[in-house]
């Protein structure tokens, strides 16, 4: 008897008879995965053979039969979703007590209010729970990476670090390069509000229709931050074009929108979306929800590769997918990647011996518990409070290629996508300690995703998802190719975020302005093209501090107590300190030269735009404030701000932004 034929009440009785949560999860997962696979197989079997010679009217089912089957499937898939969520771990609202007995499937269900005084990575409800759990916690608390005298591998080995230009070990073999595919899913620039209405259109825009374009979007972080920063009384219609040439990135974005908009329980929807977005492993029960969303997306695809899906009460996501996207979609409608296979691949990439110095360059700038927090995420890749039980054992297939390779590089972390100070504040609001970086990230992202999910239901937002090359996208818009998804040829945007496409190795400023300036909303004086450069430094002379600059800045860093202290006085730590010098170095003149070399002035003249000398949407340099002059340094006014942004944050601090407005 197949899963489709098996009576549902029998499964319900089976689940109710099982006492252990893990047993319930295993039974439900096995049944539902078989069901999803069966539905997919049945659907494929109804497709006519290419060699079929029957007349068209004999091969097409009646609309009544088709609609009946679809309705039946949706009812059943709704049941799958509800059952999966019933047996899944509930989202955390507060930091839990860390007293867990995994061997007995037991945990204390009280809130953790008393932090371990040594590491502050875990908290307990009482001294009794802390004493009871010490035999488990001490291996973390006393991990060698937390030792005060910890040193990076290049110092312990008395050698030059591999990442320096004069290191003989820098010549990496072709075989050693094959770790990670280098796809930037999370990116390296913290999320930003790309509208910034308060500095531009003002509160009156809360009743206006607005249109945004993210032409090389990567993930949805800028979309999320921008929507979440809209006035709470926003009543206009918001159109959001989200384009990314990579089919896996685009598919992830669609599924995240579907999950956040269509799962009734907002808190659970946010939790499911959070781990799809940021965790390498997920709850087994959630895999069925991802499979269901993938299957619904596949069902929504029409013959002309168009789709339209309602999300929330007022919003929609529609678009046009590429053949490559359709080809990979079946891979994501079911979960068959073994835990051991994913874990082995993650270890292979993140613990590649030739990359250890790069990780240790970060660690030696961190406080002891932050080193362990980074290492814990490197080991397991789960965004969750340190030490809290999570039951996440299913690989997140959306972070692996169809053939099982890790999509990003070994250094990738979702923490880079967000302002670290905001993350820590968000975690503390739920009882987390600042030592627990990824626990804080869990609570911060939960709040952000819940807000976003509520706004998907409240606001009228129309998402347009495409998978085009950036230049092809503008040409196709001009011809009206996307009229069927609500983007006519006369479409204009109030903000166009081109990401790092301004760099010459991608599209370059002249081509960006030629292609996208015509799409600026000329009726809105605040409309703008936004971009950033992360790779301009190695191409431009004086883009970073040289020997003379380092000599001048060293006394200042010592006076500020940034270097020369007891824990960072070793001379071989100099390679790790370089970022401190970058933070105090004015690179604005060098960036002007870089822009001139690209022919920016001529390109602006041809396109009818101007570069804003005073930014009103995003800062001119990472870490600076919106409205600061071009030569403003990153603004870290307190010791804490310096530590979170320079030590913990992984931005290079040389990244710069541009804004182009109407001439």
TrEMBL record:
Residue ranges occupied by any MYND-type domain in the UniProt entry: 105-141
Region (Disordered): 39-71
Comp. bias intervals (Acidic residues): 54-70
Superkingdom as given in the UniProt entry: Eukaryota
Keywords annotated in UniProt: Metal-binding, Zinc, Zinc-finger
GO molecular-function terms, A-Z: zinc ion binding
Matching Gene3D superfamilies: 6.10.140.2220
Keyword Metal-binding: yes
Name recorded for this polypeptide: MYND-type domain-containing protein
Organism this protein belongs to: Gymnopilus junonius (Spectacular rustgill mushroom)
């Amino acid at each position: 008897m197949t899963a489709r034929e098996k009576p549902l009440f029998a499964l319900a009785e089976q689940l109710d008879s099982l006492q252990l949560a893990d047993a319930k999860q295993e039974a439900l997962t096995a049944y539902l995965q078989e069901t999803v696979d069966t539905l997919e197989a049945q659907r494929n079997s109804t497709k006519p053979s290419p060699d079929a010679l029957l007349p068209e009217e004999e091969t097409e089912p009646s609309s009544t039969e088709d609609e009946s089957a679809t309705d039946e499937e949706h009812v059943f898939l709704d049941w799958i979703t509800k059952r999966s969520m019933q047996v899944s771990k509930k989202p955390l609202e507060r930091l839990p007590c860390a007293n867990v007995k995994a061997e007995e499937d037991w945990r204390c269900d009280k809130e953790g209010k008393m932090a371990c005084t040594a590491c502050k990575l875990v908290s307990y409800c009482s001294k009794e729970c802390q004493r009871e759990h010490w035999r488990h916690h001490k291996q973390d608390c006393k991990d060698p990476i937390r030792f005060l005298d910890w040193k990076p591998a290049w110092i312990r080995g008395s050698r030059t670090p591999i990442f320096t230009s004069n290191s003989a070990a820098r010549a990496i073999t072709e075989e050693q390069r094959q770790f990670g595919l280098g796809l930037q899913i999370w990116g390296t620039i913290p999320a930003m509000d790309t509208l910034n209405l308060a500095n531009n259109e003002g509160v009156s825009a809360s009743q206006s229709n607005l249109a945004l374009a993210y032409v090389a979007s990567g993930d949805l972080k800028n979309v999320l931050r921008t929507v979440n920063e809209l006035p709470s009384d926003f009543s206009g219609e918001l159109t959001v074009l989200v384009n990314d040439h990579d089919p896996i990135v685009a598919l992830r974005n669609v599924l995240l929108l579907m999950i956040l908009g269509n799962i009734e329980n907002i808190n659970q929807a946010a939790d499911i979306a959070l781990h799809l977005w940021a965790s390498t492993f997920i709850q087994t029960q959630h895999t069925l929800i991802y499979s269901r969303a993938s299957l619904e997306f596949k069902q929504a695809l029409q013959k002309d590769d168009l789709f339209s899906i309602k999300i929330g009460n007022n919003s929609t996501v529609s678009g046009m997918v590429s053949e490559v996207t359709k080809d990979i979609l079946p891979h994501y409608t079911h979960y068959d990647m073994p835990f051991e296979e994913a874990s082995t691949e993650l270890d292979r990439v993140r613990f590649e011996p030739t990359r250890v110095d790069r990780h240790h360059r970060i660690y030696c700038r961190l406080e002891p518990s932050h080193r362990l927090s980074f290492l814990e995420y490197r080991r397991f890749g789960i965004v969750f409070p340190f030490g809290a039980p999570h039951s996440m054992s299913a690989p997140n297939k959306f972070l692996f290629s169809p053939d099982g390779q890790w999509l990003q590089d070994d250094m990738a972390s979702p923490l880079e996508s967000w302002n670290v100070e905001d993350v820590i504040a968000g975690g503390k609001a739920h009882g987390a300690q600042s030592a627990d970086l990824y626990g804080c990230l869990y609570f911060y992202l939960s709040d952000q995703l819940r807000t976003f999910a509520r706004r998907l239901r409240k606001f009228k937002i129309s998402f347009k998802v495409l998978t085009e090359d950036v230049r092809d996208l503008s040409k196709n818009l001009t011809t009206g190719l996307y009229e069927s998804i609500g983007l006519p040829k006369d479409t204009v945007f109030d903000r166009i975020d081109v990401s790092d496409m301004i760099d010459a190795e991608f599209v370059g400023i002249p081509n960006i302005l030629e292609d996208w300036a015509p799409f600026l909303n000329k009726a809105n004086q605040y409309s703008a093209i936004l971009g950033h450069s992360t790779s301009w430094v190695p191409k431009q002379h004086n883009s970073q501090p040289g020997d003379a600059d380092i000599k001048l800045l060293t006394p200042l860093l010592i006076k500020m107590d940034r270097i020369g202290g007891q824990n960072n006085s070793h001379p071989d730590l100099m390679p790790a300190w370089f970022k401190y010098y970058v933070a105090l170095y004015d690179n604005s003149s060098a960036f002007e030269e870089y822009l001139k070399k690209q022919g920016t002035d001529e390109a602006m003249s041809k396109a009818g735009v101007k570069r804003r000398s005073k930014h009103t949407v995003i800062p001119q340099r990472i870490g600076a404030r919106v409205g600061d002059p071009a030569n403003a340094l990153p603004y870290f006014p307190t010791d804490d701000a310096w530590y979170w942004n320079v030590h913990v944050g992984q931005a290079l601090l040389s990244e710069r932004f541009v804004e182009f407005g109407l001439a």
